[in-house]
Amino acid sequence: MSPARPVRTLSLVERTEIDGVPVVWEQGPAPLRATLTFGCGVRDETFRTIGISHLVEHLAMSTLPRVHYDHNAMVDLETTSFTVCGRPEQVVEFFDRVCRAVGDLPLDRIGKEAGVLAAEGGASVPPTVGALLSQRFGPQWVGLEPWAGPGFDRLTADHVRVYVSRFFVAGNAVLYLTGPPPAGLRLPLPTGPRAEHPAPALRPQPGPLWAAHMVPSVGAALLGERNASWAMGMSVLAERLERTARHEEGLSYEVDRAVVPLDAVGRLYAVTVDAREGQEERVAGLLWSELRRMADEGPTEEELAHECAGARETYGDPRYVEVEAESAAMAELFGLDYRPRDERLEEMTAVTPTDVRDRFTGAIDTVHLIVPCDVRINLPGLAEGGCGRTRTAPAGQVFKPPLLAKVLARAARGMRLTLTADGLALRDSDGDVHEVRFADIVGVEVYERERLVFGRSGCIIPVDPDLFRGAEAAVRAVDANVPAYLFYQRSELVPVDD
To answer: pTM value?
Structure first.
């Protein structure tokens, strides 16, 4: 293991390196808090390996003995982190154990931890934000967030080994603390380089869209950049929504914001607004109205001054030291420019209402608004979106429901499954046609004779001989044209009725 290197100063944040891992800190109040973060999360998984970051985190934490100091671990869209709070010697002990565990995970515990994870549930972002990401990307990259995937019990030891060797290495980690690294701190991680995180292309969007989804609240997302104008504009938007939807009209309780990095500069900005039952359509109208007002008028000088004053208060709070250290650490981990808080505040004070208005004006065509699945909206300027679908079925071999199904279920009468030259298409009971090419299949669930096909577009097609007469031919086509590693048996952790 290499010794610690000489320290260099970045404003109030200090930097060094231990065992090949960058280490940053800023002096804050006791007790010492420290977080070891790996540059991998939901966005680095595939449909076939959904949940593997969380599984690795659980396997590592399962090796720790019972202790009396605070410690935790978590996974989000970008990172997997292990955090400890305690005396210096406790911090040293915790990271030594975590790093050694990462290099030698108890793979025989995968089955047990799969059950624990299924019971835990949870999500990296709120459900409405997850659905907005899926609308943008389908079941890939950050769009994987709301999808269940094959299930934790369908992840194998080989999946874990490959994932850990790529992401849980010294070159893909950073440690940040609220004080200097304690004496004797070592980070004995496997060696390896920083991981790359290539983003797929955004799904085409002709203009502002809305869609219904299984979400608990109304939300909207739009594309922007990493700068103060966007951050302040979204904060003003949230303040306005809270004032109108909650305080003036009594329709809502909570307004939340989220920022999702797409690359070094690009960001997806989201805002969610819960609604009193039966008032979702009205809240969606308020959200769309405020978005358009930001694009037409921008914020006022007073609103921007309020944001700057709030930032000064936040930055001056001694507890903010950990947030600042994290900001510097994430810049280190993902190759971003780190801007100390005094520079960020200076940038904020230079933002004008015109700056913010122009940002929203340029991005209004990227708006995607989402509502709960039983809500329909009709708002000027918003077209209906959703998964890629048409009203015209492609040419191919057509399979119809059997006569008994048509008799028992009215919805089955219009359904058709088509085996095309390069994929599948499904006409659903509403007459919409969903098409998935074999090359765009991201997962195939196997359950008895059925194949449930998941497409990159977000479309799901059941290939079931019990539902479509003669569909054995389509089953054989799926089996022959889709790579074997994308197939998996239905999870035993999911009730059969689901």
So the answer is: 0.93
